[in-house]
Amino acid sequence: MDTTITENAVAVRNVYKNYGDVEALRDLSLDFPKGQLTSLLGPSGCGKTTLLKIIAGLLPADSGEVLVNGKPVTGPGPDRAFVFQDFALMPWASTIRNVAFGLELRGVAKSEREAVAEKYIAAVGLTGFENSYPHELSGGMRQRVGLARALSVNAEVLLMDEPFSAVDEQTRRKFQEDLLGLVQNENKTFLFVTHSIEEAVYVSNQVAILLPRPSRVSEIIRPRGFRNKDVDSIRRDPEYLDLVDKIWASLKSYVE
Amino acid sequence: MKIFGYQLPNMSSLILWGLLWEFVGQIELTFFLPPLSAIFATLWEIGGTPAFLKALRETAQAFAIGTTSAIVIGVPVGILMGKNRLIDELLLPWVNIFLSAPLTALVPVLMVLFGFGLKAIVITTALFAVWIIVLNTRAGVMQINRSLIEMARSFGASPFDAFTKIYFWAALPEILGGVRIGFIRGVKGVIIGQLLISIVGFGALFELYASNFLMKHFWAVLLVLFALSFLIAEFLAWLERKVEYYAASRN
Amino acid sequence: MFARHRAVILKLCSALLVFGAWEIAGRIPVSFAFPTFIESLAAFWALIVDGTMFTAYVETLRPLVVGVLISAFLGIGIGLWTGLSRAFDWLVSPIFVVMQTAPLAALIPLLVMVYGIGLTSKVFVVCIMAMPVIVLNTAGAVRNTPAALIEMGNAFLGTRRDIILKIILPSASPIIFAGLRLGVSAGFIGAILAELKITPTGVGDIISYSRSIADYPSMYAAIASIIVLAVLFLNLLERLEGFLFMGTRKTLVSD
């Protein structure tokens, strides 16, 4: 077991959630250490997105509580930013307006918010596309817009709901590498939902494996040996390969 | 359609039909189809006459008031239905009934209730146009991408912001689609109203021309009406295409 | 209990609300020409009992049925040809596109001059109303047959005939049927318009006659009956459509 004491950015305590008669989450507790990336990994229907939306404040929990920096969550707040699976870009708005939208809703003046947006557009590598509209961008570029929007509100916690599942495989690999850089440089806490075992092991400081119906945390795995290695050698690391195999062995029986 | 590698414009076959019409008219096959050139000449003659302009003005006025009220009533009702399940369930059966009902049958009632004038025609126009606007707006609001709504919430949008910055724009393609079909129906409504009431606008002109067998006059007015309704429909379709990509991110 | 029957209960509430409002408006009364709901219902019953309604509908439905049948045959035929041949598409589509947006009701006085005030004129009115929507939907459905299906047919060595009969037609039939339904809907408008504008026969006669003798309950009853009949019949067609083409892709038909 891990003995490092780290401060938790997000703590989920005994959360229950039912949809009608269906028990989605039962007595779920989980910690998310500050400055690290935690993946929620599990088969479809295991409630990982539900959990993420409860943390985001988009869904209410039936009971239990979620603490962000020690403060209970009652709804969406400026300390968290969400990255959506389907990007959730406004088709009628240009890249720069989409990226600045979070700040626009907070009432930041136009010139100011556009300066911030400009900075993050550059950070995700979209310089030159400020005035393009989402339908003129590729899937990968759209998710970069979504990412820039989440970064530009400068929230401490980034909630990412299968952010790379709608982009093609090569773009996805590039994203995963970029994400590692982001975790290292941005000093933010990342919560990352995925259904790809390889992706979870590749990008995470800790992988929480959820099992379905009702959803519970079955295991927490902390990859260690390859975390500080070069991104190009991770996929050849024996620990990486072992972890992927081990997780697959435990999830196999839940695949229909 | 291509001829010798040259792409013929979309509606260009109408020219061919026009020429055929001219030919049939010239050989005097039937009295009710005068040559197209003669019809245009007549149109040139009557185009500036007070009777024609009065009919056009009365029709345009009834159409404008009717369709504007259809939008002003239809869009908010549609949004309400899309957002509130109870209102939706109470109103939807009636909207569907009036959408497919032959509303022409209601014109006699409107005549006895609102008199043989502008008022009855305006209401006929609005009745023809409003239901499809309601239904399309409702569909537009209901189809808004869920994650777009969650996105607005997660960034802390106020209800007012969510409405003016997300809902309205996201539903705009459907709203415009509804307005386009509503306007086409409204054109039909305003003419049906005038035909049955027949003492206002083009209804009166038709009555006059038909009783005097003034074929060229009759066709001249018809061509103007058809051209105007086609232009209105095309303009709205163009507007709709301009915002089509607003709906691009729907699943 | 409430949750399970919610839809039915709300429909009843909704009907009650509207009919109740009608009744109250009739009792105030909002206008001398606005009978109460109950008076209208009674008049409707009287028209049924003395057989007037029945003979009227035989008269009204005749041009409608004939006109819709002609429109269906011609409309689907022209639509298929338009969808299959680019040249024919170029030639005739614009006519139907213009007809679709044009207020064709304005042609009625002309039709009367040419064909008189008999059945022919009325059938014609129904046809010009119903035909464009049938043609355009049929053509659109044929044109939008999924390319993958046609490629599949070609890949398995289907002849042009096979591809039309076994791929294009079945794939287009849901929308063709929906177009027919809209055609029937437009046909109803045509049939009633013909009776109100050309010569008062059938239900149009009940409407015009009861208006002239100020028997408003009968007038409202006749109008409500034709609306109810049209809505019920179109609803039936829609259900049939859902049953016949269960599971096929739902595409919007153009009105």
Give me a quick take on this structure.
With 256 residues, chain A is α/β, with parallel strands linked by helices.
Question: Keywords for this structure?
Answer:
heterotrimer; A: 256 residues; alpha/beta; six-stranded mixed beta sheet; four-stranded antiparallel beta sheet; 10 strands; globular; C: 255 residues; mainly alpha; MetI-like fold; 82% helix
Query: What is the share of helical residues of chain A?
Result: 25-40%
How widely separated are the two ends of chain A?
Answer: 31 Å
Give the beta-strand count of chain B. 2
Which pair of chains has the greatest number of interface residues, and how are they split between the two chains? Answer: B-C, 56 and 60 residues
Radius of gyration of chain B, taken over Cα atoms and rounded to an integer in Å: 22 Å
CATH class of chain B: Mainly Alpha
Domain module tally of chain B: 1
Number of helices, where a helix is a run of at least 4 consecutive DSSP H or I residues of chain B = 10
Name given to the CATH architecture of chain B: Orthogonal Bundle
Specify the biggest β-sheet of chain A: 6 strands, mixed
Spatial shape of chain A:
globular
Q: Low-confidence parts of chain B lasting 5 or more residues at pLDDT below 50?
A: none
Strand order in the sheet with the most strands of chain A: 6-7-8-3-9-10
* Distance between the ends of chain B: 34 Å
So what's the overall shape of chain B? globular
What this model shows, in words?
The complex is a heterotrimer of chains A (256), B (251) and C (255). Chain A has helices at residues 48-56, 95-99, 101-105, 110-123, 139-152, 169-186, 197-203, 238-251, and strands spanning 8-19, 22-33, 37-41, 63-68, 71-72, 80-83, 157-161, 189-194, 206-211, 216-221. By secondary structure, chain A is α/β, with parallel strands linked by helices. The radius of gyration of chain A is 18 Å and the shape is globular. Chain B is mainly α. Chain B has 10 helices and 2 strands. Chain B has a two-stranded antiparallel ribbon. The radius of gyration of chain B is 22 Å and the shape is globular. Helix content of chain C is 82%, strand content 0%. Chain C contains 10 helices and no strands. Chain C has helices at residues 2-27, 37-49, 52-84, 86-101, 108-115, 119-143, 147-155, 160-197, 202-212, 216-244. The radius of gyration of chain C is 22 Å and the shape is globular. Chain C starts with a helix and ends in an 11-residue tail after the last helix. The chains are: A alpha/beta (256), B mainly alpha (251), C mainly alpha (255). Chains in contact: A-B, B-C. Chains B and C meet through helix 1, helix 4, helix 5, helix 8 and helix 9 of B and helix 1, helix 4, helix 5, helix 8 and helix 9 of C.
